Amino acid sequence: MTRRPPRLLEDFDPISVERAIAELRAGRPVIITDGDRAGLIASAEAIGDELALALADLANGHAHLVLPATRLDRLGVSRQTPGSIALPRIDLERIATLSLKVDAKADAPIGATSVIDRAGLELAALALLIPALVVVPLTTQTLAGEALQSVRAEAVEHYRRGSAAKLAIVSRAPVPLEGAEKTEFVVFRGGEGLRDQVAIIVGTPDMSAPVPTRLHSACLTGDLFGSLKCDCGDQLRDTVKEMAANGGGVLLYLDQEGRGNGIANKIRAYALQSKGFDTYEADAVLGLGMDQRGFDFAADMLRQLGISRITLLTNNPAKIDAMRRAGIDVTAHRRIFGRETADNVHYIATKRDRAGHLVEER
Fold it and tell me: Of 13, 34, 73, 291, which is the active-site residue?
């Protein structure tokens, strides 16, 4: 008898998932299947008048809005899992209110979600969209002739884990920096959405000893433009200078803008912060969790560079725990601080008080 392959390998289909991510980001709906069931998934932020009419015709009163637990909590419904709200009509104003409005309240009972609904939320997270989806149940008959991208729910579920193993070095070159002239950039490609990740090797670190290492999530506003709302830019530049002055190290520059939420959601959160919400409250209004990042692929980057023991430069205990769980020996860790300004002092305190960041040891 032929032995059946492990289920994970059988279900992992990265091509269809990556195409579905691209379609959702382009504002087009996709089809998610689960056995003999299927659903048309449309991002709430991308539905205009024309698509709303098409969805209404297809749904015939049976569509629903899927929201995560964090957003439902903002709507006044406390629960630990995502939920669905019936949409007898595709009412764009109602959908926008339930998905994004700050003072909105739930206006109908919250139902359970299906495998398809939850796979849709994961697909929205991978596409860096707000976690709010209009779902239209489909039958085999309605699927006939559809030209939309289709993806299996199981493939979406296994995508992050499977894609993390596909990371590979695609280019590298010396790039002298101000204050760190002996520096090499190593570019990796793969992982979630095939985004590029960069390892910056500063100086000549001793690979036989724990290598000073920082995991730095990209911050366009702070790293490039010097935003006063965060301490990211200072941490980035000070880390490189410290490594250059002390024998070298490795900085992993990770494409995880806005704690993994993407630049669009980060700017949405900034708009809410300007109205008095703290950084985590703002994300919760948008239905986002406290931190969407994973670091398994960062550990793989280190291993491909021949690094298994590190001294981690971080204020975030979650990064220390993540590296250890991924098999990296974190022999020590050190704080790395940026300037406190009138604009970021509350942000830094919030990270300390709500996420346990170690920022008091200045």
Answer: 291
